[in-house]
Structures are given as structure tokens and as C-alpha cells.
Amino acid sequence: MTYESLNEFIQFLEKKGELVRIKDEVDPILEITAIADKVSKSTNGGKALLFEKPKGSAYPLLINAFGSYQRMSWALGVENLEEHAQAIRELLDLKPPKGFVEKLKFLPKLADIAKFPPVEVSKAPCQEVVEKDPDLLTLPVLQCWPHDGGRFITFPLVYTSDPETGVRNIGMYRMQVFDGKTTGMHWQVHHGGAGHYRKAEKLGKRLEVAVALGGDPALTYSATAPLPEGIDELLFSGFLRKKPVELVKCKTVDLMVHADADFVLEGYVEPGERRREGPFGDHTGYYSLADMYPVFHVTCITRRKDPVYMTTIVGKPPMEDGYLGKATERLFLPLIQKVLPEVVDMDLPVEGIFHNLAIVSIRKQYPMQARKVMFALWGLGQMMLNKILVIVDEDTNVHDYAQVLWRVGNCMDAKRDVLIVDGPLDVLDHASPQWAWGGKMGIDATKKWKEEGFNREWPDELVMDPKVEEKVVPLLKKYRLI
User: Fold this and answer.
1) Which of 280, 446, 293 is nearest to 362 (CA)?
2) 6-310 maps to which CATH number?
3) 3-state secondary structure at position 186
4) pLDDT class for 354, splitting at 50, 70, 90?
5) Which of 99, 100, 206, 282 is deepest in the core (most CB within 10 A)?
6) Domain 340-452 superfamily per CATH
7) What is the DSSP string of 454-467?
8) Over the Cα atoms of the chain, what is R_g?
9) 6-310 and 340-452 in the same fold
10) pTM reported for the whole predicted model
């Protein structure tokens, strides 16, 4: 499944019975959040919501579109996220062919890869209407929580290019709307857009920015994905879509954006300019504090004739953003396994706030291997922001939290098996004693070996005799006990 527009995805969800159209006028200041929060916390993430009459705007608003495992899978064009994980695994396992027959089999795979790079087009749906006197206040931008500093654009795809190399970056950073023509740009220090801005400031140059809203949902996900440095988000989107992303040149800035977007905000950020941004009710479930951030000046808005404003809210889990985290968990596991082949599986609990808590099972082959995996993961991409890392043996189902806690309670000695180190943390982490760094905890909940200094006998686990289990099955069925 590939979607040519956000509207096409909306129609797909409606056919599947996964969308509710709300025809009453609802205020984007707090009221939409209050509804979406209740829905996202209902059974299986509730439904996607299309508010047809957000108060004060002519544009319909979509929220909770990614708010279930199934809708997240559909958003990326598959029935199950494991399909993409397997495709990534096969891609990583490609080896140069040796014989003539192997080379012939290799060619279709190379052809598939060659289809992914984006292509430029001259006309685009996102430029059907061009507003040279832009007004951000026409958009149904949410104020999510009572003590937020204002209204925030929460699902922006922010395009920038490196002032020195020209390399493109697409990231997702909240944007507080200050007035009709300016917003904050919440560039956190660890992210690509912030790196481009730092370079522009050193050069004393204005940094051009384009912000796309909507379009194929695969692109929205890709902007959140923790891709390795140098991997183009649009190339990744093409891989997920099995179809190249079409790009069009902006009207007032020298940047390309995806042609199927619903809105594009064009503009710039000046070197040295800062404005107080926040507070903001964040994905941690707490307000992130106000601070000084760069200012985005909008010079032009282009849009479709029939755009939909796609947005989300974050707060105490579970919420819609948790399923974006689950997509990352599944899609990036093969990359981790390529670097750490002993890793069997990984779970990022929604309640653990994405990377703050991770559970990893390993195929243990030598003493202290759990610690080796801890240090390796803390040095790998955005896993550097992990706070609590639990390592278990391969026979533990990392997605069964009862089983994980049973292992931790039985296989961990607090003095021997808990490792405390310092390292980078999310800038939104309010518990750390310093900004952007603090303590990390690794818990080795694997069975301990004598070679690791364990001098007692490790007991056997309780397991019923399979023959007895088989024998009692008829009785269990007779009395409807199973």
C-alpha cells in the first residue's frame, strides 16, 4: 500500500472502520486534546479522529491516525511492521554474488534498491495554492495542555540543509506559534536540524527552512526515525513505500519538499535570534520548561486546495506517539542486530518514554557479555539517551513484562549486577542533575556463570513434564478450562 496523499490514507482508515468523523465544532484550544487523550487511552488506542469543523479554521484536523499498532502498520504500507523489519534484515544480509547464476538473482534486488531515491517534479499538489502574505493563525493549531506557553505545531517535517555540505536533513521539532508569521523552533542539541543551525550561526548566515505538514504518512514517520547519520530520510521513506518520494522546489527558499504535502511553511531562521519558548506538555507526561530557542520566520505558505491539518498530542502514556516508538523498535532492531549479532529481541515499553527504558534479550556465549552489550548500545545512535537498560537471556520474551520482571527479581543481585554510569540523556529529562546528561543504569538479569564469579549452584526452573501436560489436555477441554 502506498498513499498518494493524506486524504487517501484517511479514506483507507474509514473503509477499515478505523476513523470517526466529528462534525461538531470543537475548539483546538484544549478541547480537541481532551477528546483525543481519552480516545488514545481507550481499548487498542481508540479510533483515528477527523475534526471537520475545528473552531476558528476552515481546515479539517486529523489526530490519532497512528494510534494503534495496526494503524501504524497501515501508515507504513504493510499489515504488520515485521514485514518491513524482515525486508531491512534481507537488505542488510545482501552479499556480493560469486557465480553467474547468483549474479542474475542479485540483479532484481539491486533494481529494487535503485528505485528508492527521490525524484524532482515541476508541479505539485502542495503548491496548488500559494499564499505570499501568510497567516499561521488560519491553521487549527492546538494548545494541548492548560499550562502550555501557547499553541504548538506538533507534526512538522522540518527540512534544512547543511550550510557547508548541502546535505539534507528532515526532523520533527515542535513549533510554538508566536503570531501569524513566526514560531519557535525547538531544535534539541542532539538532532540534525540543530547541527545545521549551529553551522549557520558560526558562518553568520541565515538558515533557510521549509516545514511540510501532511502527505503520505510514511514520510511523517521517517522524520521521527533515528536514522544513522548520512542516511537520507527520503531514501528511507522510498524504501518503506517501495516507491520514490516526489520532491518539488519551494517558492521562496532554496529547498525541496515532498510534493504530496498538505501544507508547506517556507521561511528562515536568523543566526543569534532567540525567543522564550514553552512550557509544553511533553511526551514524558510532564511540562518541559520554557527556554530560549531560535525563531522561524514564515515568508510563504503553499497548500493543497483541500488540505487536512495533521497533528498529534503527547502526554502521559499510552498515547499516539507510543506507536511511533513501537515502529522504531521493530524497524531498527535488524540494524542493532547487524552490529550486535547476539541480540535476539528488544522492547521499548511505551510507559518507558521511548528510549528511557529498554529490555534486550541476548544469546549469551561468554562471561560479562551482558555488560558488553550495555556499553555497545549506549554508544549506538539515539540509544545513547537510554536511562535504564535491562539485559535478559534469549529464552525470555521481552514483550511479556510479567516474565521480564520475574527474571529481574530472580536473576539479579543488586550489588553485582547493576551498573551505574554517566552519559548523555534527553534534554527533556527533568530528573537528571545536569542538563542533557546524567546517570544510566544497566541491569544484568541473565543467568550467572561460574566464570563470572558465581560460586553457588544455579537452580533449575520449574517446568512440567510434557507427557503429563499432554495427558491432562482432554480434561481441561472437557471442563472448558482452556
Assistant:
1) 446
2) 2.30.110.10
3) coil
4) confident
5) 282
6) UbiD C-terminal domain-like (3.40.1670.10)
7) --SPPPPPP---HH
8) 24
9) no
10) 0.91
272: left (phi over 0), alpha (psi -120 to 50) or beta: left
Residue 1 C-alpha cell reads as 500500500
Taking CB atoms within 8 Å and a gap of at least 24, the contacts of 13-18 are 13/48, 13/65, 13/71, 13/74, 16/74, 18/47, 18/48, 18/68, 18/70, 18/71
Written as nine digits, the cell of 4 is 498518494
Catalytic residues: 282
CB 210 within 8 A of CB 258: no
Give which of 304, 294, 1, 291 is closest to 123, Cα–Cα. Answer: 304
What is the spatial distance between Cα 266 and Cα 289, in angstroms, rounded to a whole number? Answer: 27
Whether pLDDT at 104 is above 60:
no
More confident residue, 200 or 455: 200
CB-CB contact of 248 with 222 (8 Å): no
Indicate the Cα dihedral angle 312, 2, 236, 101, nearest 10°.
160
Q: For 383-415, write each residue's pLDDT tens digit.
A: 999 999 999 999 999 999 999 999 999 999 999
Signed CA dihedral, 42, 48, 53, 56: sign only: positive
**Cα–Cα distance for residue pair 257/226, rounded to 1 Å:** 20
Would you state the cell numbers that stand for residue 367, as one nine-digit string? Answer: 562471561
- Among the listed residues 388, 365, 392, 367, the one whose alpha carbon sits nearest the alpha carbon of residue 378: 388
- The answer to whether the CB of 71 falls within 8 A of the CB of 18 is yes
Q: What does the angle CA 467 – CA 472 – CA 473 come to, to the nearest 5 degrees?
A: 100
Q: Is the dihedral of CA 198, 203, 206, 211 positive or negative?
A: negative
Contacts of residue 402, defined as CB under 8 A and 6 or more positions apart, other chains included, come to none
> What is the number of alpha carbons within 13 Å of residue 247 lying toward its C-beta?
21
Q: CA torsion sign, 441 to 442 to 448 to 452?
A: negative
Strands 207-213 and 246-249: unpaired
Length of the chain (residues):
482
Q: How many CA atoms lie within 13 A of 442 on its CB side?
A: 25
Can you give the residue ranges of every domain in the chain?
6-310, 340-452
Kindly state the cell numbers that stand for 84.
Answer: 518491513
- Neighbour count for residue 389 (Cβ, 10 Å): 23
In this predicted model, what pLDDT tens digit does every residue of 11-66 receive, in sequence order?
Answer: 999 999 999 999 999 999 999 999 999 999 998 899 999 999 999 999 999 999 99
